[in-house]
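FAQ: What does a ligand-bound record look like?

Like this one, built around flavin mononucleotide:
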Amino acid sequence: MITTELTRTLGITHPVVSAGMARVSQADLVIAVSEAGGMGCLGGVSFMPDRLAGEIAKIKAGTRNPYAVNLLLPDSLTTEDEAQWAPVRQLWNTLREEDRAKLAGVEALLTPGAVAGQVDVVLEAAPPAVVLTFATPGWFIDECRRRGILVFALVGSVGKAVQAAEAGVDFIVAQGSEGGGHTGYASTLALVPGVVDAVRQPVLAAGGIADGRGLAAALSLGAVGAWVGTRFIASVESYGHDAFKQRVIDGKLNQVTLTRSYTGKPLRAFRNDWTEQWEPRAAEIAAFPQQYAVAGTRVESGYQDGDLDEGMMPAGQGIQIIDKLLPAGEIVREMVADAERIIGRLNSSVTD
Ligand SMILES: Cc1cc2nc3c(=O)[nH]c(=O)nc-3n(C[C@H](O)[C@H](O)[C@H](O)COP(=O)(O)O)c2cc1C
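The answer part, i.e. the structure of the complex:
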């Protein structure tokens, strides 16, 4: 058993949190991870408020153990400024009915006011923890504190970690550039101890952690736990086309790249025809979230249809060491058991 400040504060058994991956991490995955003694995090950002409320209700019915919800509260999403939303709305209004239906999964990122609705839902549901990405607004942290919700901030740099720490979050998740999804430029090995040294809050490590070796390494770097994304794509309970999951299982390091071509922010995802087309045209890429409008249904065709050529398939460098589809609970248990063995072996290899 590995006990840390994370397991003690949350009352969970294992220091493993599954990442709040938009689309991929829905109620079934969260329940499986939390039931296994880790903590599951719902990828909340893409759900319209009513669907988000439904997913949270499903989690509450499926487990009594702690769980978390991920939200994105940057100004570009919380703003009601018509001009900023115009390109996204323009696309939405011209879409065919079937394309709109396809984009229903990310409609919240394309709809002014949807994020405010998500905030209301989350504060009302009062989950044990909320994980904020990109921004940590003080008003939201205050509301969480009033309701006893722990706040985690996901960051990719020491500077952002210090900002989040000063804003008063309870835990920091330091995500290195190996990670899947939106990511910064510092590697996990350099970033995590840098953040541990810079803030007083406990830190979770993220980016490239896909097995017990990664968990043991995270603890060695001073982290109180691991925040794991890509490994859980290849789980039975994750949402996503089988072709996406299989690609994660078969994938090699050089098949993922950093691209702004889907969302406007650097995203680690599988390289394909779409990402390659944009490589020489980087200067033409729109800002977040407007580039979603340019990418259109490609941001969903990977998850829904297994479109390997153009569909968005975020994944981290951990694909190199992921080789089978497993139930999420087994991933948690295997990761912890292997980390315990490694730590025991290292302990016994130290002599006076
Ligand atoms: C498919 C996918 C979707 C993701 N979606 C989100 C998201 O909605 N919000 C977020 O904060 N991070 C998201 N991330 C990043 C994860 O939270 C996490 O930091 C990352 O996966 C950790 O690195 P790893 O993939 O190597 O485990 C996503 C990652 C992946 C692979």
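Follow-up question: can I read anything off the structure? Yes, for example: Residues 5-239+326-345 form a domain with the TIM Barrel fold (CATH 3.20.20.70).
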